[in-house]
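Researcher: I'm comparing several assemblies side by side, and this is the next one on my list. It has 676 residues spread over two chains. Same procedure as the others: predict the full complex and return the structure.
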Amino acid sequence: MPLKEKNLIRHIRRASQRSAAVTSTGAGVARTGIGIGIGIKTGIGDDCAVLSLPPGHELLVTTDFSLENVHFRRDWHAPELIGWRCLTRGLSDIAAMGGNPHAAFLSLALAGDVPQKWVDGFFKGLLDLSKKFNVPLAGGDTAQSPSGIQADIVVVGSIPKGQAVLRSGAKAGDAIYVTGRMGGAAAALEEFMESTKTKPSSGKNAGYFRPMPRLIAGQELRQQKVASAMIDLSDGLSTDLEHICEESGVGAEIEADAIPRAQFGPGNQLVPLDLALNGGDDYELLFTSSKQVASKLGGVPVTRIGRITKSLGMRLIGADGKSRKLKAAGWEHFAAKP
Amino acid sequence: MPLKEKNLIRHIRRASQRSAAVTSTGAGVARTGIGIGIGIKTGIGDDCAVLSLPPGHELLVTTDFSLENVHFRRDWHAPELIGWRCLTRGLSDIAAMGGNPHAAFLSLALAGDVPQKWVDGFFKGLLDLSKKFNVPLAGGDTAQSPSGIQADIVVVGSIPKGQAVLRSGAKAGDAIYVTGRMGGAAAALEEFMESTKTKPSSGKNAGYFRPMPRLIAGQELRQQKVASAMIDLSDGLSTDLEHICEESGVGAEIEADAIPRAQFGPGNQLVPLDLALNGGDDYELLFTSSKQVASKLGGVPVTRIGRITKSLGMRLIGADGKSRKLKAAGWEHFAAKP
């Protein structure tokens, strides 16, 4: 049995205060340079949280579900990884605007059969990441769920006025870039689906379930005014690239050989192209640019994978030089998965 | 079957744009004087929403679940009323700070068996209220739910710097006031629980399921600097008063006869005292004050129901003048309930 609502809130409030001082004088000590500049005047325990934004900045808001048996499975993913990934989803959206995250809010519904140990593990993972980027948990809601676990993470951040990197700015002729490598989380998930073991996520591929939001890379791109459009890779490269194309009114051409594929398994082999193109939960950044781009951003390698075209639709150029139509085949959250 | 995720988002985006212009020049035409002053630079369709806050203001953030079979039942509550009440929960929290709501964000998970007609009704109710207070739907998330309907509403608002009315400001000697009348929603719910009819919520008591967030009353109290502490009545008078007492480090004494009880049923009789004290979902405001208070705020009657005491704990003074211990017995969202 989880704690009763009031006790749970008290528990969260204490855990959150230990992890990142939510005080009347503002957020705690910065560990990464991220998350500075906002004051949390009132955190957990009032009708609303009260926050002050840095002057000359606009507000960023994003919300993301993490639902049991849709985004995670209790028998596959350790609770720490579910909590970590829950917050990653929100921070990664802030990264994709080039923004600075300031505070997180969690709505959490738990069925009566969820052990308090699971809840503690979930908060440990979430608060580990919240500490890393100095983004305190400043509020939320709790409820009893009729069945399973439903979490909704809200992250608020800020960005200097007018500087948000949108999905809609890509121009024909821009090159397309990604940070990091694609397909690792999907490959790990595929292995678990074929495995008979439970709790495989604590094993050697656990890293793919503890993705690092690319906040520093996103901020560097915004500061250097290099990116014309940007999105985070949460639903899969093909699907997220299609969002950029649709919002910008352009097409795209990707070189299959150029896509940086994750390494996986005992022989460290590259994941299949299909997983790199269509697997979700990478939480890397995809951006477009007409300018010179550094080979590393925030310590993460950057790779050119194609170009934006005037003609609509997406095309994939194979190793043989032949071009074929590329369909968005990423994760559809309205199909049961994982 | 509901629409697929992408189509659903497109559908919501259009409905939301029709209801309250989310444009690059800012929010739509004000209907009530509420919700003016913020610009939504980027709404639905990017990684984050981008909003600008009025200068000299602080940010307010609140999140609230509306879960099927916890906060509502599909066979009891019409979808329009569920959508309306989902947003009321968030707006009422902004009201309880004395704040100005600016934008709403909805995370919505739907099981495969939820008809699109239900979804349309839900959005109609939510957007009717969003229009009324000029609070556009500016983003959110959608997902397939393994079973049932889970909604999480986020409302962001603003308040002039340092003027938020907190729960923690009540002082011994302050009088305790409420807006409106208590217990109507609980009485209507009780009737439905005893009834064999389905969809009773479209009947004559439907008004209790379409509560009006007390935004104007809350703002008047903040502007007049009258309230020392404030909370909205969502979990029941006894539970919400206890929150004020705990956050302020004080006690309270309530006069049973003074509590304004809702009228209900064919004879318009007053609801039982128990429902007025402990029934949830009234969405009225409870506040404390040492000053003179108007008899109406935002057009809503205001009633003095007791006083804040130095000695901790809550007491109820009966019609016979005898005082007894008052226990917080409001809605516990960790107990199964509709």
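Model: For your comparison table: The CA atoms of residues 238 and 328 of chain B lie 5 Å apart.
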